[in-house]
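Figure 6 in text form: structure in, sequence out.
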């Protein structure tokens, strides 16, 4: 895996991923940025959310659950001094579908957190991570 990050101007950067996708990043105005794009740490959190949500959907599909939606809301706290690493992260999953089994949803989240999601496992080295979840039954 590779990525090239180029400084554009002020505190604006452009990342080109190895798969050929482009991501803009910018700093806050108080840091010399113009607030035109997400901060790098926001992208790290978003990428982690994507990693774990991807796992949950895939695991539930393989378990033949009738999943129709998966939303991961992530809240994080950072250290007050440099390096301002994440110190606490909560992942709240809202999983929707028809007749989803709570034990299947819980298992999918657990497997992602403990075995498959490289990003959240890596962040778990500096942060306390909590996972909560709810099911929305669309059959009603």
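Output sequence:
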């Amino acid at each position: 895996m590779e990525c090239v990050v180029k400084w554009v101007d002020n505190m604006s950067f452009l990342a080109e991923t190895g798969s050929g996708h482009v991501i803009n990043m910018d700093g806050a105005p108080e840091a010399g940025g113009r607030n035109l794009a997400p901060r790098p740490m926001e992208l790290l959190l978003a990428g982690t959310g994507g990693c774990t949500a991807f796992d949950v959907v895939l695991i539930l599909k393989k378990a033949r659950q009738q999943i129709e939606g998966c939303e991961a809301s992530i809240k994080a706290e950072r250290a007050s001094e440099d390096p301002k690493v994440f110190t606490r992260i909560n992942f709240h999953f809202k999983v929707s579908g028809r007749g989803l089994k709570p034990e299947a949803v819980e298992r999918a989240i657990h497997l992602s957190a403990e075995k498959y999601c490289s990003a959240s496992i890596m962040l778990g080295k500096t942060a306390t991570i909590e996972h909560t979840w709810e099911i929305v039954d669309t059959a009603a």
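Caption detail: The chain has a mean pLDDT of 97.
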